[in-house]
Design a protein that fits this description.
With about 800 residues, the protein is mainly alpha-helical. The chain has 28 helices and 13 strands. Strand 7 and strand 8 form a beta hairpin.
Length: about 800
């Protein structure tokens, strides 16, 4: 992206020597993102586009190519030209132009023959076929992850003697000795104390179960972090900050590769099963995007065009949320609102189709055995009253405060991890956090159960047959009347559950801060929803008991009579979950739709909207960034946020390079430089591209050429064009310049020259320049004065300037 000045070394050329430029896009060159280490190796991943370049040829400026055929660079494409180095940004304008040219060529050829017409139809249909494959693969992997995680979570507490592959619930399904009061106990399911010491009563049995729970948790966590560290360091974390950055045009090779997909799928199951305060919903978006990226290589249209590939990844992100929450429409809106940078109408339709296929596939697998796509699907039937908007808004305020607190503390801890010795010991960190979590979680049944099961318990609308402590109410009514259950006085079980939930809330708030960002797959959706659901359930039970004992108060007597079902605590849990998730991620529309699809009740949209907007307002008042944007900034990714406005009165000349007292701008001339001159400039600089001018004296702009394209073209010419030597003249004009006799053959490189680079004048306001970079996805623009080249502004320069104007460290922008 930063064509003029890169913070990262351009690995293909170090000063004073020419090595193979292939290394600059190798998957073994990794960037330090949350959960990665620089010395991890990543092999056999997605190769650079448009063919491979020979690695064993050093670019040292010597020799004439072995071929005697003259190469016309205007007619024959050069392999590798038009591709991008690792950790650089794509040129959106060039990619869209290339796709239009490709489509125009196919359309014109379709009129010439039947075969060309069939090819045109298959090209048009390929996008829908790709969406179908992404939906099928994403849904299948999500079902596999759900089933495996459910089984391994129960493995910490015991095993099924009838079949080791059954989880606790499936083991007891057909048992005729299961009662409503003790529905989890059946002869076929044995706890570890029953297996090891043949009893589950007494202190020693409790200690054995406690020890096995902690041991399994540590084993799962150790396997997860070890697999990530050894095989796929990019498989850690949520993945959404990096996916947002990739969708904005940045290239991180290997992040969406096959090794990342395999290891992320396996370690996500292990991480969730370990009992850590994390979820699988965010990582499922990463898994779906990996599926999309890998399947793109089956279709030329998407394999060779980075902009088209990003349209596919936007649709894949929608499919990921669709299978994570069973919310296809919410998934499409999530992709549009939260992660996508470029989202045309065509992508909207294809995202909808991919999300539909993914949800259908997961529903066919039925991983939870409840004919639903998620474990915590609920249905409420009691209408809400206008007065209840007050507690709903209070939950929104709590969600906003929690979101702001979590973002600040988590970012501070992650910064400490990056800047201290802590980051060098990922395995020890994961094991310590896992041990603390497991030791504190086991005594409390609400922390011992999986977070998804906890949310399901909190969302539950108590019925007569519910044996949960949260439903332990005193029944002083005739149950034969039918209909909704009235509000009832809380029993001892409810009061006991309230204390346990309060302790669970404290543990979840604290431990999630240290868990998110560790070097294992870790999502934030489920922990955030759990915090909000606990707070909502506590408030809901309080409101319910207040309405029962004080139904004659003015706030209740107009709508809540004695013996009526006035308050639904499960609804408060759902609203609280939405508020906390919105406070952390700053989602609004997509969040409300996801929660609506979870409950299937249109009448609860207003409470959800009120809580979501309140949490966003409160959180925005305390800090403008959501958790994903904060992690993008922490890691220095070159992401230009489209939602923020630039309000400062600076000019292009204040930002462009070179500044006063800086060396002159490095340029190429259109027809007077030799191959050796260009090679010297390439070897002595790390710039990603060079302006081409008429002459150094006039500085009249001709175009812009990329460093990578120059390297590939010169190396290719040495191999395939006779007579090209170090003294050969390189020209970018239409016709060869007049040359004296007996001079070496010239090298024409006009085909790699961008003849229409974007330019602004030196007096252009920076707010316009920033808008241009956002809306056109530029890598750089050139600054001129009366037609003469003055300097260059790269995307990195823009990001640094924005950071400087916001009193932040401009050197935090790390990458080209």
């Amino acid at each position: 992206m930063a064509m003029w000045q890169g913070a990262m070394d351009n690995r293909g050329f170090q000063q004073g020597c020419f090595n193979s430029f292939q290394s600059s896009s190798s998957d073994e060159d990794l960037v330090d993102i949350p959960g990665t280490a620089m010395n991890f190796s990543l092999r056999d991943d997605v190769p650079p586009l448009d063919g491979e370049i020979e690695e064993d040829k050093s670019y040292n400026g010597g020799g004439i190519g072995s071929s005697t055929r003259m190469m016309d660079f205007l007619e024959e494409p050069i392999p590798g030209v038009g591709t991008y180095d690792d950790f650089n940004t794509i040129d959106w304008v060039r990619e869209k132009s290339r796709d239009r040219d490709r489509h125009r060529e196919i359309t014109n050829k379709s009129k010439e023959s039947t075969w060309a017409l069939i090819h045109s139809v298959s090209d048009a249909f390929s996008g829908w076929l790709l969406m179908l494959l992404i939906g099928l693969l994403s849904g299948s992997l999500a079902g596999l992850i759900d089933i495996s995680a459910h089984w391994m979570t129960d493995l910490k507490e015991g095993i099924c003697t009838e079949g080791l592959w059954f989880n606790h619930e499936h083991c007891c399904w057909d048992s005729d000795q299961v009662t409503f009061e003790e529905k989890d106990k059946c002869p076929k399911w044995n706890s570890w104390s029953q297996l090891l010491i043949s009893t589950e009563e007494g202190a020693f049995a409790y200690i054995v179960n406690y020890f096995m729970y902690v041991l399994w948790a540590l084993l799962f966590a150790f396997l997860a972090v070890s697999l990530v560290k050894v095989f796929a360091p990019y498989a850690c974390g949520s993945g959404i900050p990096e996916i947002k950055t990739i969708l904005s045009g940045f290239i991180i090779r290997g992040y969406l590769g096959k090794w990342t997909l395999i290891i992320k799928t396996i370690t996500l199951v292990l991480a969730v099963s370990s009992g850590l305060s994390l979820g699988k919903e965010g990582p499922l978006v990463h898994v779906a995007c990996c599926c999309g990226n890998i399947l793109c290589h089956c279709f030329n249209k998407y394999r060779k065009n980075e902009a088209k590939r990003r349209e596919v990844l936007s649709a894949a992100a929608a499919a990921g949320v669709s299978v994570a929450f069973g919310a296809p429409i919410g998934g499409v809106l999530f992709s549009l609102e939260e992660v996508s940078y470029y989202f045309p109408l065509k992508t909207l339709w294809r995202s909808f189709f991919a999300a539909l296929v993914a949800a259908f596939t997961l529903r066919s697998i039925n991983p939870f055995g409840n004919s639903r796509l998620v474990l915590f699907y609920v249905e409420f039937h009691t209408p809400w009253h206008l007065f209840e908007l007050v507690p709903f808004i209070l939950l929104g305020i709590f969600g906003g405060l929690w979101g702001a607190l979590f973002i600040r503390t988590n970012i501070a801890w992650c910064r400490k991890r990056k800047t201290t010795q802590l980051g060098k010991y990922p395995v020890i960190e994961v094991l310590v956090v896992t041990a603390i979590t497991a030791i504190l979680a086991f005594p409390n049944e609400y922390t011992r159960m999986s977070t998804s099961e906890l949310i399901s318990e909190l969302f539950n609308d108590c019925g007569l047959l519910d044996s949960s402590k949260l439903c332990d109410y005193e029944n002083h009514f005739n149950s034969s009347k039918g209909g909704d259950l009235p509000d009832r006085p809380a029993g001892a079980g409810v009061y006991s559950a309230m204390w346990q939930l309060a302790l669970t809330l404290i543990l979840k708030i604290v431990i999630t801060i240290f868990t998110f960002g560790m070097k294992i797959p870790s999502g934030l959706f489920i922990p955030s929803m759990a915090v909000g659901a606990i707070a909502g359930r506590l408030l809901g039970v309080g409101m319910e008991q207040m309405a029962y004992y004080h139904h004659d108060w003015a706030i209740f007597n107009s709508w809540c009579s004695q013996g009526a079902d006035c308050i639904t605590p499960g609804l408060y849990a759902m609203v609280g979950a939405a508020a906390c998730l919105g406070g952390v991620t700053r989602m609004t529309v997509s969040l409300v739709v996801i929660m609506f699809e979870l409950t299937g009740g249109l009448e609860y949209i207003v409470p959800l909207m009120a809580a979501a907007m309140t949490s966003k307002w409160v959180a925005d008042a305390l800090g403008r960034e959501g958790i994903y944007d904060a992690h993008i900034r922490l890691n220095g990714y070159p992401f230009l946020e489209a939602k923020e406005e630039f309000a400062h009165k600076t000019l292009a000349m204040d930002v462009m390079k070179p500044r006063r007292n800086d060396p002159l701008l490095t340029v190429l001339t259109q027809d007077s430089m030799t191959v050796e001159d260009v090679e010297t400039i390439i070897s002595e600089t790390t710039y990603s591209g060079f302006p081409v001018v008429v002459s150094r004296e006039s500085q009249r702009l001709v175009g812009f050429v990329l460093r990578r394209d120059l390297i590939i073209s010169i190396e290719n010419a040495r191999k395939k064009q006779d007579g090209v030597v170090s003294t050969s003249i390189i020209y970018f004009t239409e016709h060869s310049p007049p040359m004296p006799p007996y001079t070496p053959p010239t090298l024409k490189l006009r085909n790699i020259l961008d003849l229409s680079p974007f330019t602004v004048t030196d007096l252009t306001p920076m707010e316009i320049v920033v808008d241009i970079f956002r809306k056109l996805g530029l890598r750089q623009c050139l600054v001129t004065h009366n037609g003469r080249l003055l300097g260059i502004i790269t995307k990195k320069d823009v990001l640094k300037h924005i950071a400087q104007m916001a009193n932040q460290d401009p050197e935090s922008i790390l990458f080209n």
